[in-house]
Amino acid sequence: MTTRRTHRWRGVVAVALVSGAVGVFAARPALLLVAVVGAVYAAYPHLTEAPTVDYAVERTVSESEPADGETVAVTVTVTNESGERHPDVRVVDGVPPMLTVESGSPRHATALRPGESATFSYDVRAAAGTHHFEPTTVVARDVSGALEVEGTAEARTRLSVDAPAVEVPLGTLAGTLPGDVVTDRGGDGVEFHRVREYRQGDALSRVDWRRYARSRELSTVEFRAERSASVVVCVDARPRAYRAGGPQQPHAVARSVSAAEALVRSLAPTTNSVGLAAFGREPVWIPPTNGIEHATRLRERLASEPTFSAYRPSEPRVDLDDQLRRLHGAIDPNDQVVLLSPVPDRAIVEAVVTLQHEERSLAVISPDPSATETLGERLAWASRRIHLDALRETGARVVEWGPDQPLAQALSRASAGWTQ
Amino acid sequence: MDAVTFRALPRREPAALSLLAGTIAVGAIANAPNQLAALVVEVLGLAACLAGLGWYRRGAPLLGIGVAAFGGLVALVALVAGLAGVGSPPQVFESLFGMLGLGALALGLGPIRVGSERALVTLGTAGTLLGVLLSSILHGAGTLALLVAAVACVVAWDAGEQAVGLGEQVGTDAAALRASVVHPAATAGVGAVGVVAAVLVDGLGVSGLSLPALLALLAAAGLTTFALTH
Amino acid sequence: MNVARLLAGAGGVVVAVVGVLVALFGGFGGFVAGLVSAFGNDYFLVSAFGVVAVAAAAIVQVSRARSGLDQADPPTVEEVHTVPRLGADLDAFLDPDADVTADPERVRASLRELAVSLETREQARSRREARRRVDDGDWTDDDVAAAYLSDALSMPRRERSIAGLRGEPAAQLGARRAGLELDRLVRETFDLPSPPDAPQGADRHGRAGATGASDDRPGGSRIGPQRPGHASTEGTPLADGPPSRERPGDEPGASEVAE
Asked: Is the entire prediction scored with pTM above 0.80?
């Protein structure tokens, strides 16, 4: 709670002084009486007490899991729990930072008796990702307006816009060891490997009956052995990754976080293991494990960890080398890495090179934050293109993800261009 | 993308109250019927001007500009006519400050220029107050009228600043009726208390005070007022 | 200040009581008569109080004007939390009024990196050779741009003094010229259409004011759809549509000479 003196009544003393002075100069006693009125007004702001901001907030949304682009109605009720009369209270609701208000107003001003409530509502437009409402700002003033107290009230509300399920082409995305096929199902393979002579005990469903029909030879089709993958989803949440291509567009970190959620969600029901890492305010590392519970934990971290916050950090830079070294030390050589980064500088390219080795190639999903209006933007756009090409040259699989493009489309288009 | 943008402009309800109070401040001390008529016409013109500004900002730019210009013209004509109709030059000044002050107040509440709202509101109400003082000096307006006019000046300033402040924190789209009304009403109430106090002091017969007593009371008033500065 | 006010208040109460007593019972007549003769006549004496009052009012107004209102400033929640654009640091470096702070060293490093990369890519050179070319200034005809990005060359004195007279520091001049040169190279390499009011080439005789940064404010000139054509070889899934190859005529660009 912050208490302020607004000083708005500071000049009213002049009313009394000037009226009194003029009354004296012009010998008009009536003006001395006007000065009395002025003096009463001068005393007025000193006679009131600062209000106490003790408010409860209730918030309901018309749909807590809307589709992308859907209009969601938000209704807010604030209740004066301070036990005082508040003749002037102003409320600003905490709209999530990545959402825009479509209609109505998230603000309200009113006067409330003790225990009284006020309700107002507005519409927001849902965007991809998980959005948390911020604390509601409540500003109360005394009746004269000379003292103002600012506080907050909180109602934890969450809007989850789940992007449509993505088909994670793990086989091609995560890079493979020769002879192995990694799928999102795990278990028996589907990819043809060879035909060999039938052995006692082979499953009859695996017999190549066509060949038998042709040549009366029994043979068994063998598929590539499949194994589960261990994938680390790594989010670049450094300050310089917080870039957007236009004023109302979600920035690259928000898009990376929503892509990370989609990847985790897609991999959760499979036998593959998923882990989470991030470069940013605070490095994040959760080693890969499989299972739905673990995936839920990962999504909780993505939704609540400050590193993944939608707000740009105040420090201008983080020590990428140090965080990279820690990740490199913690990660297992068999872990595949999917990096989500807008690739805003060369440092992340070098980080990718560090993480790569013969047994592991990286995939990079890069949300595009660039614009080409101004000189600086064009040069940065060109630098990014060059960095992306450099990434491809290192052998990493690069998925370029345009600003209005669904992630699934970006993934399928990219993987179509890769050779197996 | 049809997102709403936050507009920090003065709110209309307290602005209307402010204009009303300003009109009372100028009207209470008017001493000729044609002054009153000119005042009413000026205020109507100013109100039209403000409405036009509002429409201009809310997506009817042509209509808004037209109405605002028309209203402004009406107000200007009323101002000039009111001044011309007054008798002697000193009385011109008395009406001049009041009506100009109203104009400045309205421009501040428009606002004609974002960033100048509070300055214009203060300037405008200072002008109306000056008009009150001059009307007492120049033609000895009645005590009660002076007191009421002075209170109206302060209420006009208070409601005007409230309009600007509410607009900055809550914007023009949100609902804010109670907050807009309770506050100026309280200020008017304090003014009523002040008037009662002044009448009581008057009843004590201050005019007939001996010089030493007068000086002492003036000194006391000065010291107390200084003590009340922020 | 508070002590003064307290004293004044207390003093005021005391004097008021004295005044009431004097009004009721009289007194102080001789003292006041002396004051009256000191001031000339009683009107002047009383007016002295008025003068003091006006002075006090003026002081109050001045102090009010100097320190403004202090009130809460709630966040603008209606809009998406804004972050800078990619490349905003260079624009900020060239236009110091912007609110993104720019690190001069980083700006130069990233421009140099871009120059080296363009040389490597376009001319199919090795990075080491490209770096040497940038150091020698062979990548461009513009002396100022070359000097800015080079570790060896120094900026031509004449250009630097002209810029200095304009109030532009040498680093900013160098960044601007290098930026323009690189912009030209970038547009050639990637087949970007020229924006309508950018110059078609760097003019090395110091024609100021034609900075892309200051002309192309958001909302100003736009190139059209934001997905320009690209020269990449793989099936990169940039958004829809073929690369836009249109060049909007041969517009010499309205380069204002802001000198």
From this structure: no
